[in-house]
Design brief:
CATH topology of the largest domain: Homing Intron 3 (I-Ppo) Encoded Endonuclease, Chain A
Structural class: alpha+beta
Shape: globular
Order of helices and strands: HEEEEHEEHHEEH
Radius of gyration: 17 Å
Strand order of the largest sheet: 1-2
Strand content: 15-25%
CATH architecture of the largest domain: Alpha-Beta Complex
Largest sheet: 2 strands, antiparallel
Helix content: 25-40%
């Protein structure tokens, strides 16, 4: 079966938020950026904000990277994306850990409370969101039921 066009696959996984951001509803990286399958094993996985930027504005100039003006890594609205040098992007941004501490939310937007965070025994200082873990486990269980022929 042929793969549907990338633009169609991307646009069906975007929801407009009241804030004006376009929320990526698909898979996220650990840092909170949207990711999408570019179509083949050779092309691999791409970052959604870069794909949307190129679909709406054209190629990203050499030596520049995409900055989220809204500071939301999951946002892929073209008006919220700007091609800038790395130094500008670094100056404007904050580290993932600092972003989470400042926002009080995980990469998927769940509130980080003492009840919702668990600390990893295998990686001192590392933590995970309990709601995200529950959602991942529920999705994995559903996939397993479907593979087994269950309803």
């Amino acid at each position: 079966m042929p793969i549907r066009p990338l633009a169609d696959r991307v646009m069906e996984k975007i929801r407009a938020e009241e804030s004006g951001c376009w929320r990526w509803l698909g898979s996220l990286t650990k840092a909170g950026y949207g990711r999408v399958n570019l179509g083949t094993r050779e092309t691999g996985i791409g970052l959604v904000h870069r794909v949307v930027y190129e679909l709406h504005r054209g190629p990203i100039p050499v030596g520049l990277e995409i900055d989220h003006l809204c500071r939301n890594r999951w946002c892929c609205r073209p008006e919220h994306l700007q091609a800038v040098p790395h130094a500008v992007n670094s100056y404007r941004g904050v580290s993932p850990g600092m972003l989470i501490r400042l926002s009080g939310r995980c990469g998927r937007g769940h509130e980080l409370t003492p009840e919702n965070v668990y600390y990893r025994k295998d990686r001192p200082g590392a933590w995970n969101c309990r709601v995200c873990r529950r959602e991942r486990r529920a999705a994995a269980g559903e996939r397993e039921r479907l593979r087994a022929g269950g309803c």
